[in-house]
Design brief:
About 30% of the residues lie in helices and about 25% in strands. By secondary structure, the chain is an alpha/beta fold. It has a five-stranded parallel sheet, with helices on one face. The termini are far apart.
Length: about 160
């Protein structure tokens, strides 16, 4: 009699994240992702899918986060969100972004709505100059909240 191959156990974990891109438009001195070191490169969607397929039957994260660098620099951000939503059905899906390139993704609010993903807008400093730069981003995000009912959170990354 042949032994049945054991199905790997699915372990619950708190958070799992993937760098959609290593590039970032900012160079914050205290970057926890080392984007201030000038890293470049974007993850291919097919490679991300291969990685996720290898892990989504082994771990179950409470949260799955698309991060970077700056994920909105990736032209296929929407496809990554859909892929992550499909692969991590039982996880809260988060997109962590500084927001400066959200305007490049006109289909993003609809994708966020469809996938119930949460947009985390990372705030990098509290200076008046920075607040003026992000005001249009906050207005865009607010319009998406009102029109599409998407979930957003503001993360004061400079205070951590």
């Amino acid at each position: 009699m042949l032994a049945k191959s054991a199905m790997p156990a699915i372990f619950p974990i708190e958070n799992l994240e993937i760098h959609v891109t290593h590039s970032c438009n900012l160079a914050c001195e205290s970057c926890s992702h080392y984007s201030n070191h000038g890293h470049k490169g974007m993850l291919a969607l097919s490679e991300a899918e291969r990685w996720m397929e290898q892990w989504n039957q082994r771990v179950c994260p409470s949260q799955f986060s698309l991060v970077g660098g700056e994920p909105s620099l990736h032209p296929q951000l929407g496809d990554f969100i859909r892929l992550a939503s499909r692969m991590w059905k039982h996880s809260e899906l988060r997109i962590v972004t500084n927001g400066f390139f959200l305007h490049r993704h006109p289909d993003l609010p609809q994708i966020l709505k469809e996938t119930a993903a949460c947009l985390y807008l990372s705030i990098h400093q509290d200076s008046l100059q920075y607040r003026e730069r992000i005001r249009p981003i906050q207005e865009l995000v607010k319009s998406w909240e009102q029109e599409y009912g998407i979930k957003t959170k503001y993360y004061q990354s400079y205070s951590h």
